[in-house]
Design brief:
Bound molecules: adenosine-5'-triphosphate
Number of helices: 30
Radius of gyration: 35 Å
Structural class: alpha/beta
Helix content: 40-55%
Strand content: 15-25%
Largest sheet: 9 strands, mixed
Shape: elongated
Number of strands: 24
Length: about 900
């Protein structure tokens, strides 16, 4: 990392392109580029091969649970000769497989859509004009221009390089940047990392600039060759891994219980071949019913669809695990321009030669000319069409298009030391008759000390300490109103300095320029929403402390009388133990920003950081959530980030936190719903076997499978894509160590399972012992109660908002409604009764099913509401 004083030699970029041939200076003609696009194809990697639907469908039948059921169907057919039962089991296996197939398809589609969301761009020279095109349109022969921060779009030959350095670690694993040099001696058979005359697709420019001619695109590039060999499967998030482990563990428990059930059933039915077959079927059905095998897929669907919703709001997630971390974010480190302000800069006022002016024309001519020269020359932007940094575009607009063109044509640029946020200034050198003109613009505290004279009308006077102080005070006052202030300087030199940064002294202070950048109207609301959600927002900016404080006060991050901590404070006193003791950090370098992130993380904070420049990459990588700016950010920042915000807006980041919390919340609902619901089935079977010998098999295998089919599939999927709870942002962030299934949570889920199972067993006892109906009648009622209670339990897990209404979920209503409707058919339709072992319920039994089915969800909801009201932890 550079210090302010080290000379970034690598950043010096002589502009003269005399060594380039005319062909390279013109680039391809647009028509030729188009025809080559047809010939060579788009510069993209072929999409990863997706598993065919036939294969995917077949795989559903090879899952362990499906195999177990197929074995059960075979036993029923060949062992017991029960054809109808066997066919029913087969139908259930098929229905389960269909649900899994649909869920997987949804997950795959959603993930694919995510992959397509980012469209990289490239800067090419075509027909003599520089233009930005989608990277996919780059063709062999195209002249691609590179600057620091770019991702290289194709393999290309370097024809011009100015301190060009490229990070090729994604191809070579070598983390040090490689210097590129078109004149390097070429060696046959050199490896990827040993070719200074080439750049490769997918690698990143970290320094300097250059021009290249594309040699290979798309799958023909080195990157394409590597990508072909890679496993295309999406990596799993920690949450997905946790859930897979959980499903595995529940599977083990289920197998254990299944063995016990097998033994107990044999005891009940006697040690006969028939008994053994029945016992096997019961045990197998229970194992299948108890394992929430759909859980990992439902979670993937929830994650992927949530991420798509976030993209709709302008937050593109580049790494899926970020979604989980978003929900537990406690601090957002945000910069200022673009995130809190609109980044629609306007030149507001100019101070030169002791005059204040709102516009150039109000200054005396000689003064206006000097100011206009620095503004037009020390500038990488263009007005027509507007390209480049919005601040520089604003400066050009202040000068006017024609005047800019005249000034630029009269003094072609010979060298430049580009702006970087550590140096906080930019320097250019131009032809100036027989001499050279050096111009500089940058932060006043940086530029003024480099000046030895000051413009006064057409004259240059020595810059006294008093005059320097007056200039800085003027800058200070303008900054305190929220303006961004630049100091402008120039000097005439006899020869073009070989290294312009070594000649940055004894300049002539020309004046100050103040720019206004209005605060985004939504910024205040986003800051307030974040505060309500227990999130701290720290402003960490490279801008002046006065500007930073004024903007922070306007959006409500801190009041304007609280001083900002500056980069020099941090260098003098070190990074504070608790960076949260201040809210505004100004004139901060990227490496100090990184140190702030580390200090916050040491205190247990989960940190999101915004960034746009090449120098921000380490902080973005280190942060728990690195957020790159989509509009103003460099490709390097994007590559380092977990999330890209397309409109650079803080409000979008806060929305992403809300969505992140919502996605996690939905996953929690699915886990609670499936785990407690499936546990209740185990409890019913075991209780039945142990306490009610007369019942024989407590629930017939087909009944268990039926419950599993209707409760585990669609209701879980519907919960996974549930609407975001409006009360989410009134809660504090979720602790990072908070696991979906900690022991206390498992305890609470067990309590709910007992409640559901209790309602089912109670109904059995009422029908059998109070109403003296036969066991088959009692079992039939228990079957319906268990089904209904499990389905309605979905509404209890949804109810988490402490009184605020959650938007209704038509999918859930459909899934639960269909489930209950089908259950009514299965017990009520005489044709289906023999298949499912049910009998027609009497009227009071229908009533019992309704009451006992609703009761558990009702108790849980009341329990939760009163638990919250009394401040206790609700179940
Ligand atoms: P923000 O938080 O507002 O986005 P930042 O952290 O990105 O700010 P920098 O862009 O690093 O801040 O700018 C730091 C300072 O450098 C500015 O206050 C300004 O004085 C100066 N500066 C910014 N851009 C340029 C430029 N293109 N040329 C010269 N000086 C610049």
């Amino acid at each position: 990392m550079q210090t302010t004083e080290s000379v970034p030699e690598a950043n010096v970029r002589p502009i003269a392109e005399t060594n380039l041939t005319e062909a390279v200076r013109r680039g391809l003609e647009p028509a030729e580029a188009l025809s080559r696009l047809g010939r060579f194809g788009r510069n993209e990697l072929p999409p990863p091969r997706r598993e065919g639907w036939f294969h995917r469908a077949g795989r559903q039948f090879l899952e362990p649970m499906a195999l177990l059921l197929l074995a059960a169907a075979a036993v029923t057919w060949f062992g017991l000769g029960e054809r109808v039962d066997s066919l029913a089991i087969l139908a259930i296996v098929s229905a389960n497989a269909t649900i899994a197939f649909v869920q997987e398809g949804k997950a795959a589609n959603a993930l694919e859509a995510l992959r397509k969301m980012e469209t990289p761009r490239a800067v090419v020279r075509r027909g003599g004009r520089v233009e930005e095109v989608p990277a996919a349109d780059v063709v062999p022969g195209d002249v691609v221009l590179l600057t620091a921060g770019d991702r290289i779009p194709a393999d290309a030959l370097v024809v011009d390089a100015h301190s060009l350095e490229v990070d090729e670690s994604m191809l070579t694993g070598e983390s040090l940047p490689v210097a590129k040099d078109p004149g390097a001696v070429r060696v046959d058979g050199a490896g990827t990392g040993e070719q200074p005359w080439m750049v490769f697709s997918g690698t990143l420019v970290v320094h300097g600039s250059g021009a290249t001619v594309v040699t290979r695109t798309g799958a023909d590039t080195r990157f394409g060759a590597i990508a072909k060999g890679l496993d295309e499967r999406e990596p799993q998030t920690p949450l997905q891994r946790e859930l897979r482990r959980l499903t595995g563990r529940l599977g083990a428990v289920a197998v254990g219980v299944a063995f016990a059930v097998f033994g107990l059933t044999m005891l009940r039915l006697g040690f006969t071949a028939d008994g053994a077959e029945q016992a096997f079927l019961s045990a197998a059905a229970l194992a299948v019913a108890a394992v929430p095998e759909g859980l990992p897929t439902v979670v993937t669907v929830g994650l992927a669809l949530g991420v798509r919703r976030m993209a709709g709001h302008g937050a593109i997630v580049r790494r899926l695990p970020a979604v989980e971390t978003l929900g537990s974010t406690t601090v957002i480190l945000t910069d200022k321009t673009g995130t809190l302000t609109e980044n629609t800069m306007r030149l507001d006022s100019i101070w030169a030669s002791g005059c204040f002016a709102g516009a150039l024309e109000n200054l005396p001519d000689a003064v206006a000319d000097s100011v206009a020269a620095v503004l037009a020359l020390n500038n990488d932007a263009t007005i027509d069409p507007p390209t480049g940094d919005p601040m520089e575009i604003a400066l050009l607009r202040g000068v006017g298009r024609e005047r800019c063109e005249r000034i630029r044509a009269g003094s072609p640029r010979l060298a430049v030391v580009g702006f970087d946020s550590t140096r906080k200034r930019m320097t250019t050198v131009h032809a100036f008759g027989s001499k050279a003109l050096m111009t500089m613009k940058g932060a006043p505290e940086v530029v003024v000390p480099l000046c030895g004279r000051i413009m006064s009308g057409a004259d240059e006077l020595p810059l006294t300490d008093e005059a320097a102080r007056a200039a800085l005070e003027t800058a200070e006052r303008a900054a305190a109103t929220g303006s961004r202030v630049l100091a402008l300087a120039r000097k005439v030199v006899d020869t073009v300095p070989g290294d312009p940064s070594s000649a940055e002294h004894d300049l002539v202070l020309v004046g100050l320029a103040a720019l206004r950048d209005p605060v985004r109207p939504e910024a205040g609301g986003a800051v307030a929403e974040a505060a309500a959600a227990g999130l701290r927002i720290l402003m960490v900016t490279g801008d002046h402390p006065g500007t930073a404080r004024a903007v922070a006060a306007e959006v409500g991050i801190a009041s304007s009388d609280v001083p900002a901590v500056t980069g020099s404070d941090l260098r003098a006193a070190g990074i504070p133990d608790d960076p949260l003791s201040a809210s505004v950090y100004a004139r901060v370098d990227p490496d100090e920003k990184l140190a702030l992130v580390v200090a916050l993380q040491k205190r247990g904070q989960v940190v999101a950081v915004t960034g746009d420049g090449v120098n921000d990459a380490p902080a973005l990588r280190r942060a728990d959530i690195g957020v790159a700016m989509g509009r103003s950010g460099s490709d390097v920042a994007r590559e380092a980030a977990d999330m890209v915000v397309t409109d650079d807006n803080l409000a979008t980041i806060v929305t992403a936190v809300r969505e992140g919390r919502g996605i996690y919340d939905n996953i929690r609902k699915v886990v609670e719903y499936l785990v407690a619901g499936n546990l209740s089935e185990i409890l019913v079977v075991v209780t039945g076997l142990v306490f009610f010998p007369g019942l024989g098999v407590p629930l017939l295998p087909l009944q268990l499978l039926w419950i599993n089919l209707l409760t585990d599939g669609f209701p879980a999927l519907a919960l996974g894509i549930d609407a975001v709870d409006p009360g989410l942002m009134a809660r504090p962030p979720r602790p990072r160590a908070d696991h979906l299934l900690s022991l206390p949570k498992l305890g609470r889920l067990l309590a709910r399972a007992v409640l559901i199972a209790g309602a089912a067993v109670a109904s059995l006892m009422i029908v059998r012992f109070a109403w003296h109906e036969p066991w088959i009648q009692a079992r039939s009622t228990m079957f319906s109660v268990l089904m209904t209670a499990h389905l309605l339990y979905a509404y209890a897990v949804r109810h988490t908002n402490g009184g605020r209404r959650v938007r209704w979920n038509p999918w859930l209503l459909g899934a639960v409604g269909t489930g209950i409707g089908l259950q009514v058919l299965v017990v009520g339709l005489p044709a289906l009764q023999p298949v499912f072992g049910t009998v027609s319920p009497t009227l009071r039994e229908w009533a019992l099913v309704a009451a006992a089915g609703i009761l558990p969800a009702l108790i849980m909801t009341v329990w939760r509401t009163t638990g919250r009201a009394s401040g206790g932890r609700a179940a």
